[in-house]
Amino acid sequence: MLSHLTGLVTVTLVCLAIIIGLGLTREDRRQLQTSYAQLRNINLVAVDANKLSAQIAELFVAGDQDAEIREARDSLLSGLQRQRDLIREEHALAGEPDATWGGLDRVAQMEIKVQEIDQSRLLIQDHLQAGRRAEALQVFNTRIYHQLGQVLLELVEEATVRERAEVAEALASSSRLSERAVDLAIGLIVVVAVLGVANIVMMNRAILRPVSALYAGAEAVGRGDLTHVIDNPSPDELGNLSRRFNQMTGQIRDQRDSLLQAQSTLSQQVEERTRELRERSEALVASNDRLRSVDASRANFFADISHELRTPLTILRGQAEMAIRTPDADAATLQQVLSEIVRKTDQIGRLIDDLLFLARSESGSIMVNRTRVVLQDIVGDVLLDGQNMTMRPGVRIRPSQPSEPVEVRGDPDRLRQAVLIALDNAIRLAPADTTVSLELAQSQDHAHIRVRDQGPGFTGDELGSAFTRFYSARPSRPRSGRGLGLGLSIAKWIVDQHDGAIRIDSAPGRGAVVEITMPLARRAVA
């Protein structure tokens, strides 16, 4: 407890030193920030003043500039008001909120000059309208150009000198603070060193000596001397441990005597134990086989997750990258991007909820909500998602669909998932500068969705096992690079639940066509 108390005191001293140092520097930082804000605002006032002068000068060239001049005047007055607020804030930080400094007087003079300049501008307009250009030019030079520049120069020089003095004072205060911090650190080091030495002495007397006695007792027991006794009458934990050690050696001594007495029956006990171990070994082998099967299922499960989350995550990343590449996007654009990201996040949540639906489908625990669905809406949503998928340069998605609505009865989210799986497989391996077609057509009583690409096609093994679950986890077979794992098996399950069919027409090197066929809704058939 004393050791812990020593550590707590040390940590408390360090924290207090840090808090004191931060408190001493806070006011200096705020003062420097206020000074910087005043200097920056003075520069903005200078820019607005020059702009006002330039707008008035435009009267000699462009004629009526009344709206632009009023805008420049209002901007200049707003900057002067901002300068007054900053000076008052500086007064408050200095603890003199009612003080009257020259900066406020200078700002007031500048505002008066702005009003006088505005009156002079009206006079210039009257001279120009009357054709007295020389008189207007004289008024501009004497009352606007020279007076505005002189007052602005005095304001900037006065504020610059004052703020430099404040910065120098703040830097000197920081220097003094650094010196005090060094002194505080030295004192803290001395205090920590003293506490550390005291802690070492205390640890040596209270812990190391009893531990050495326990170590000697353990060595004696290791040599077979069960009569060794540790003499430590202390009432603390180590004293209790020493007494428990003595009790333990006595118990071991008694157990050794009992073992010697049971030596005659040891062979029988060993044989019985061996039989039990053999039975347990066989049980462990069976358990190991079951664990191996569970491990294989776990690997397939994570393969499902990685495949099913890749497509929506790619879309989310595309949306985010589009927003990053457009730094000057307005709020409406960013709101649209965020809405799209939220929509895709909802889809990811549903994918996560349904990751095990292939296994659960055998028990009928997954429900397909059937409603009347217009397949043009499904194709439109899939096309929007496809634009955000990662693809090679020049890859284009070409849609084709009839003008009349093609309606089926089904779950729109499941159907969108099935079509998106086929489109993702096509886009992911489409060569550069090729076209991926997404076609919607209808025959007499069926709707047909075809995804056509110009990729590497399917090998013979892949085509035969395209809809086999976890087929992508079989590395021994030749592959074209297509992901033939969970995705197409999910699409087949979805199509089967809608009384449809899915097939693949492909050969190596000539692309592939994935066709989904579904019965039309009754009204569409009629």
TrEMBL record:
CDD domains: HAMP, HATPase, HisKA. Keywords: ATP-binding, Kinase, Membrane, Nucleotide-binding, Phosphoprotein, Transferase, Transmembrane, Transmembrane helix, Two-component regulatory system. The chain crosses the membrane at residues 6-25, 181-202. Coiled coil: none annotated. Its main location: membrane. Residues 205-257 form the HAMP domain. Pfam families: HAMP (PF00672), HATPase_c (PF02518), HisKA (PF00512). Residues 304-522 form the Histidine kinase domain. GO terms for molecular function: ATP binding. It is found in: Membrane. It catalyses: ATP + protein L-histidine = ADP + protein N-phospho-L-histidine. Its EC number is 2.7.13.3. This is histidine kinase. It comes from Paracoccus marcusii.
